[in-house]
Amino acid sequence: MPCLLIGATDDWKAMRKWNRAKFSKRFGSSRFDVGSYNHTYMTYEQYLRYCDTNTDDSPLYIFEPQYATKFPKLLKEFSIPKYFTPEDMDLQSCMDDDPRPYYRWVLMGPVRSGTGIHQDPHMTSAWNALIQGHKRWCMFPPHIKGSIVKPKKGEPDSGIYWFHSVYPRLVDRADELGMIECVQGPGEIIFVPAGWWHVVLNLDFTISVTQNHVTDFNFERAFNSYKRSKPKKALIWHNSLPDAYKSRVEAPNPDDISSSSSSSYTYVSSSSSDDENSASDSGSGASASDSG
Predict the structure, then answer these.
(1) Residue 177 burial by CB count (10 A; 0-12/13-18/19+): exposed, middle or buried?
(2) Does Iron appear among the keywords (predicted)?
């Protein structure tokens, strides 16, 4: 089940150092990904000016998957919550970052930005820690069909559109659909289990960090998802696994891989097939896993 964790970020340096003003001093001239993996970048100062002046229904959203390489000091300013450690809790940690698909992001966005309704990629679970601001979440269990919770064909897939137009169509069926909703505040962590539909709307300027992972709970489903869509990475992963896990899944046949492609990350938006895309907001203004 999804859950909201309180108190797990109390000792994080990020809670003191991650805000608009301090980020501006540290990273004002640095470029961040604002284009949902379409290679669209702004400097942080440019992005802040955009945030303060835009009138977009669903504003651009910083969804930076390479922060650990570009801004390595950030990694020292928070820690993976104890509920998701040690390393054997993340069965993808045996892979190097190079073959491993994007799995962690720093997120920043103004009011109205967010992610459309989606499931995180390859049956991964995710946690999202909010440093600044407030996020509105709505979640549905994995068995609920995408055709029920997604916008209709031709409708926008943004988070703000979902809450404005799709949410009113579903709220009276909340119990029937197993809908869970909440507002996440600073210092709180949302856990999104594998397969859960989720949509996120930023209620004010937010800064958060999110990470996707694979545990014993979702291992077979995650591996088989990789095997179908990213067989090269699945083979690398299989070769890196502890023996106890290798025996639980069948490795891809190397002879079947030669003609397949394997991009580093693929997001399937809320308008796509039901077995989609996070993570950890991971759509709309940003197309990734947010889980927020």
Answers:
(1) middle
(2) yes
Q: Which amino acid is located at 138 in the chain?
A: C
In sign, the C-alpha dihedral spanning 223, 129, 9, 195 is: negative
pLDDT given at position 286 = 45
Give the whole-angstrom CA distance, residue 140 versus residue 145. Answer: 10
Domain coordinates in residue numbering, the chain: 3-256
Three-state SS at 272: coil
The DSSP 8-state label assigned to residue 163 in this structure reads I
Which listed CATH number (3.30.2290.10, 3.30.565.10, 3.40.50.300, 2.60.120.650) goes with 3-256? 2.60.120.650
For 55, what's the count of Cα atoms within 13 Å in the CB-facing half-sphere? Answer: 0
Which residues on neighbouring strands pair with residue 184, listed in sequence order?
Answer: 135
CA-CA distance, 259 to 110, in Å (whole number)? 42
Four-CA torsion 135, 284, 193, 139, nearest 10 degrees: 60
pLDDT tens readout for residues 30-44: 999 997 667 789 999
- Residue ranges for the chain with pLDDT beneath 50: 261-288
Q: What is the pLDDT of residue 205?
A: 98
Write a three-state SS string for 178-216. CCEEEEECCCCEEEECCCCEEEEEECCCEEEEEEEECCC
Predicted TM-score of the model (pTM): 0.87
CA 97 to chain centre: 17
Question: What are 108-126's pLDDT values in tens digits?
Answer: 999 999 999 999 989 999 9
